[in-house]
Amino acid sequence: MRLYLYAALIFFSGALTRPFSGNADSFVDSGESPIIQYLGILLYALALPILAFTAFEGMRRRRRPAPIMWCAIAVALWIGASILWSADPAISTRRAIAYAGSLMIIVTLAFATPPREVIRALVWITIGILIVTAILFFVDPTYAVHQAGQIGVAEHAGRLRGTFSHKNEFARMVAAGFAVLLLFGRAVLPFRKLWFAMLALGVALLLLAGSAKIVIAFPVALVAVWLVRVPIAPPYRFLVLVLLGGPLMLVYASGMLDAAIEAVFGSLGRTAGMSGRDEIWAAAWHSIARHPVFGQGYYAGWANEAQAEILGRKYISLGHAHNGFLETLLDLGAIGLALALIPLIYLALRAVAVPPGQVERLQGLAAMWIVLDLTLNFAGSYLINYNDLYPTMTLLLCLWFVRLDRGTIDERSLALLSAPPARVKRRPRLAPGPLPASEPGVAHPSADV
């Protein structure tokens, strides 16, 4: 089962797609790599008997599926139903099958694998990606770094991408692993120095990737982790958020927000229009307005009308809307977006509602994950991706909270997900010297009796 776990997580990370595609220069996806496709089919097939056994055990113990599980199934069914009105039924059918297979793997990891094993695997996979990327950066920089002559990615010349097709893919996967490494690495790794070294290496590689989304998201994610770990009741946490939001509202009302945004994005080599994303989003909204409720089919919405509008206006071909929420509206309409947001809302509520100190690390990971997921979907399209680590971890964390409620998490995993035990201060040793005199007739406490 451990081999299956590592294979599934590496498959979801996308770290092997480009090396096995045979095309190292341009942007590639899993559809261009037969080996990755065969690995996905194998993982789907192996998940079936494990799921069948898990479902049988659940029925035998009379356990009903949790509401969040029904929500995940509803998303998969809605994706499948979108084939009926899809602008491209062939591609929607292939992608819907892949999404269903991806969901099977996620449920398998959630219920057939202890959470501690998933965390350990993520930590070691992250370390592997960091070390391999660092070696490639020095040994073969033309492979590890975007080059000016590469098709589809030349505008990112000089940015680190490692074994990934795009520097944003590298940055978001390293950011995901970095979050797990930050919260759980000290408990998993044998040496503290190794933990510090990997954190430092992760920060350095993320800066070399130059992904503005990650640079903006991580400080906010750290604040979110601190907020859920503060031992205060949920209503007071909401009050803290209001107090933090007050100054931002004053800045907005004073008209200084635009200048602040320009300054922040300018320091990252971007503009307030997010490098032309505002025009991309405008084209997406034009297409959404024509199909607001049902969308245009899974993975067919952008390619139908919005892409043609951008191609006619900018003379470039883009593969997605560069916004996960707009992409979902294009593909699945308002109904699909509402279903897709339920796991994120559930995860946010659970991260805040659990009393502090019970599962402190799990709360921190949930808070950090929500911030990263929302931020990345603001400038990229990952909300309903199939075979992707971000939707995988979102649902996986939700199901871990379900298992926590039902008491089915093993003790070792629960200890890992909880706060580290408090250090007991040693009592100071008495200075050497003669014992103090005792009262007459009363033996000294240190005397032998």
SSE inventory with pairings:
Elements (H helix, E strand, L loop, with lengths): L1 H12 L20 H27 L6 H15 L7 H24 L2 H25 L1 H4 L22 H22 L3 H18 L2 H18 L4 H21 L2 H11 L9 H14 L10 H14 L9 H30 L6 H20 L9 H18 L4 H7 L32
Question: Please, could you describe this protein's structure?
Answer:
The structure is a single chain. The protein has 449 residues and is mainly alpha-helical. Helix content is 67%, strand content 0%. It is built from 17 helices and no strands. It starts with a helix and ends in a 32-residue tail after the last helix.
Q: Estimate what percentage of residues fall within beta strands.
A: under 5%
Q: Termini separation (Å)?
A: 58 Å
Order of helices and strands: HHHHHHHHHHHHHHHHH
Share of helix, binned: 55-70%
According to DSSP, the number of beta strands is 0
Contiguous helical run count: 17
Q: Please summarize the sheet with the most strands.
A: none
What characteristic shape results from the CA principal axes?
globular
Give the averaged pLDDT, no decimals: 78
Rg, Cα atoms, Å: 25 Å
Structural class: mainly alpha
Low-confidence stretches: 251-258, 421-425, 442-449
